[in-house]
Design goal:
binds magnesium ion; 5-stranded mixed beta sheet; 11-stranded mixed beta sheet; binds 2,5-dioxopentanoic acid; 18 strands; single chain; alpha+beta
Length: 291
């Protein structure tokens, strides 16, 4: 069961449940967080609330493809984990050493350390949704999307659902000096999430999501990669526990769990590219690159 948000004919946003057989049920709430609040009031779960609504209503007569999807949750904050996959550790080592193969770098160390890398990524105003434009910085010549599984959390750090995230990154800025990380990660429209939130109770094994990333230029695929969340070095609970330590976390915070796919080192995004990130059971997050 997935929750989506789309633009209605009257240009108002509508929250909806998308069932596994493709039926769409309009939900009375405008936002995923309202659904979470209602579930809390009823001492129930978002899934039970959605199932109750579905039982009492008919599906709407719209196909998923014709909907104008919106960002499924207005996440007050997006945080992100880094160097949680070998692929990311190796890419960070490459960009920070200008291609020299060095060992025992601080990226090697963080990959093995008890404490994971967790950084602040985005706010609701900087985060875009499905089919929106995602921006590349004007002062970087080496930019890539980072396809990541996103955990949608409540304020106690419980996983309400899973979504797809794109942690856009500037490899040259980050590679120059790790202290530049916030500039390599945060700018206007540098993060996207969507297209849906897969409710956590409907996921059997969150360590077996298939991830595929495709980048198109002039409608030709220029980058294609795939991975699986079983390659994640850490457990989700471990990442969440570090995020929560002495911290204030808001309802609906999204935690991106790190990238498992990195485009070839010679690749950089260009204006007009289209990025598609697919995670099995969640959907495809598409964004258009603008300089
Ligand atoms: O160390 C920098 C960030 C790495 C990152 O964003 C990732 O591994 O996904
Ligand atoms: Mg990342």
């Amino acid at each position: 069961m997935r929750v989506i948000r789309f633009l209605n004919d009257d240009k108002k946003s509508t929250l909806a449940a998308l069932t596994d057989d493709g039926k769409i049920y309009a939900l009375p709430q405008q936002d995923f967080l309202e659904l979470v609040e209602l579930a809390k009031q009823k001492e129930s779960s978002p899934l039970t609330v959605v199932q109750d609504i579905i039982k009492r209503n008919e599906p709407i007569h719209r196909s998923f493809e014709e909907l104008t999807l919106l960002v499924p949750i207005s996440a007050p904050e997006v945080w992100a984990c880094g160097v949680t996959y070998e692929k990311s550790r190796d890419a960070r080592n490459y960009e920070s050493t200008v291609g020299e193969v060095k060992t025992d770098t601080f990226y090697d160390k963080v990959y093995d350390a008890d404490r994971p890398e967790i950084f602040f990524k985005s706010t609701a105003a900087r985060t875009v949704g499905p089919k929106d434009d995602i921006y590349i910085r004007s002062d970087s010549n080496w930019q890539i999307p980072e396809p990541e599984l996103g955990l949608v959390l409540n304020k106690d750090g419980e996983i309400l659902g899973f979504t797809i995230g794109n942690d856009m990154s500037c490899r040259d800025i980050e590679g120059d000096n790790p202290l530049y990380l916030p500039q390599a990660k945060i700018w206007r429209n540098s993060c996207s999430i969507g297209p849906a939130i897969r409710l956590s109770e409907t996921v059997d094994d969150p360590y077996s999501f298939g991830v595929i990333c495709k980048i198109y230029r002039n409608d030709q695929i220029v980058v294609e990669g795939s991975a699986n969340t079983r390659q994640l070095k850490r457990r989700y609970e471990e990442l969440i526990s570090y995020l929560l330590r002495d911290n204030l976390i808001f309802e609906g915070t999204v935690l991106l769990t790190g990238t498992c796919i990195v485009p070839p080192n010679e690749f950089t995004l260009e204006d007009g590219d289209r990025i598609e990130i697919e995670i099995s059971g969640i959907g495809v997050l598409t964004n258009y690159v603008k300089r």
